[in-house]
Amino acid sequence: MIGRIVLQLMIIGLLLAGGIAMFQDRLLYFPEQVGLPALLAEAQRDGLHTWPAEGEFRGLVREPEGPARATLVLFHGNAGHAGHRAFYAGLARFGVRVILAEYPGYGPRPGTPGEEALVADAAETIALARRNFGVPLLLAGESLGAGVAAAAYARVPQAVSALWLITPWDSLVNVARHHYPWFPGNWMLRDRYDSLTHLADAQIPVAVMVAERDTIVPARFGRHLYEQLRSPKRLWQVPGAGHNDWLDHVDERWWAEVADYLLHSPLARGDTASANGKRP
Predict the structure, then answer these.
(1) First CA to last CA across the chain, in angstroms?
(2) How far apart are CA 14 and CA 12, in angstroms?
(3) Contacts of 70 (CB under 8 A, 6+ apart)
(4) Are 72 and 99 in contact (CB under 8 A)?
(5) How is the chain split into domains, by residue range?
């Protein structure tokens, strides 16, 4: 009798694990699709414009009022679309050109989300931004976007001057184990976003921000990633903040500190002139 119960539990467990393995994309990616006219109508109210101005849509951009000190390409989290991250465009007040990159399958872009599709597309976006605007080119990513940014950086390390990771994980496998301790993610998880591996040889400045009370990507995973990074690096832990409300827990001084850190090293190398569209 006991043996039969154990066997039934094992079968149920395998069916559940198999179901998650088959439908893991639906658990990881939550794209919101919207037509380009509707997206632009809302984005323009936030001072954002389509990027590139001509050709295939890859995201939204806000230019600073004066000459650009650098260009920052940001990859957003797993839900919604790039237009929902207009608050990052506020970095333009520090002289930064901000590109809110969009993924395949999100917003008005066709395609199907997946690690290979998102990372390959992100590497192309980074290369395009560098061709258009030169250096310094800064790279940022939030949550899923941090995994995308780390993996894309590993493909085009020469294009990036500094990296900013917001509520990142070390490896998606570890986050999966945290939420589903019974799930054999080490061999069933298809998309891994292993930032520890992708940034193992990173030699650029890296800023890491973790939210103290993050229950989606617990702060310990971001801290572990930070601890394994080479210097130069800097960690911000936002007290009392969760994964989705950290914006309410930071002030203007915090934004200025992040901007100063990201800009300092590239500018110290004398790259300012090429940030305004002059190719190096």
Answers:
(1) 74
(2) 5
(3) 95, 96, 97, 135, 136, 137, 138, 161, 262, 263, 266, 267, 271, 275
(4) yes
(5) 2-270
2-270 is a CATH 3.30.420.40 domain: no
Distance separating alpha carbons of residues 80 and 218, to the nearest angstrom: 21
pTM score: 0.87
DSSP state of 230: P
Which H or E run includes 15?
helix 2-22
Quick one: tokens of 66?
């004066």
- β partners of residue 163: 139, 206
Angstrom distance (rounded) from CA 216 to CA 167: 9
What span, in angstroms and rounded, lies between the C-alpha atoms of 96 and 149? 18
Please list the pLDDT of the chain residue by residue as tens digits (280 residues): 555 554 444 444 544 554 554 445 556 899 999 999 999 998 989 999 999 987 789 999 999 999 999 999 999 999 999 999 999 999 999 999 999 999 999 999 999 999 999 999 999 999 999 999 998 999 999 999 999 999 999 999 999 999 999 999 999 999 988 887 766 555 567 898 999 999 999 999 999 999 999 999 999 999 999 999 999 999 999 999 999 999 999 999 999 999 999 998 654 344 444 444 433 3
The Cα 17–Cα 185 span in angstroms is: 9
Q: What are the strands, taking DSSP E only, across the chain?
A: 30-31, 49-51, 59-62, 70-75, 79-80, 96-101, 137-142, 162-166, 206-211, 233-238
